[in-house]
# Entry
Amino acid sequence: MPVSLEVLETSLSEQLAELRGQPPDCLPASLLHFVVCPVELPGGDVCLVRPADWEALREEEGAAARSIPYWARLWPSGYALALELASAPPQPGARVLELGAGLGLPSVVAARAGADVLATDGASDAVAFTAHNLALNDLGGRAAQADWAEHGDLLVEQGPFDLVLAADVLYTIANKETALELFPSLLAPGGEIRLADPDRANARNFLAAARGHFEIHTKRDGEVRLHSLRVG
# Structure
């Protein structure tokens, strides 16, 4: 059965504290104030746990000189990628890697289809929430702390993957350059990258450079562009 909310609250606070390396009573109050909400998807809703007040969390993290918790919101690109996966899911047993998972909604959808999922994010808090979102939906899968821009070699060692997922990760020039080098090394023969992006300039530059290595198909979902990349 899916994890109960009482167990969820206790285990989530414990894991957040462990990954941060600090006692639970030192965690920001807004990090532990979360909501569980349904997310409408083809094939049935899934549940997602997330911080209830993103602005409050951002203020508390800023006061503590920590990074802005971009991971703690369900952004349009993540939702669009999840919708695409729900409509065209991976095969059962497919090896799936999500980069910059945030709350992990695409990973939840891939795991629901029976894929072998590894969800990664550079933020330890994101890893804890993703792991609990998998558990909340009674799904298997792994969540691990890994910044794909820094730990690419370690991710390659975990592969190769049949499907690589990434939602709105090409927001810097450095990420674009890293993606050009890393993405082909992550894929198994016949593998695919599904990339969702709100038409950022760096994403356009990445796609233009990647056409020499990948066959790319793009479609639009509202403000988000969904790109499918396969080795040509």
Observations:
- Residues 80 and 205 are 21 Å apart (CA to CA).
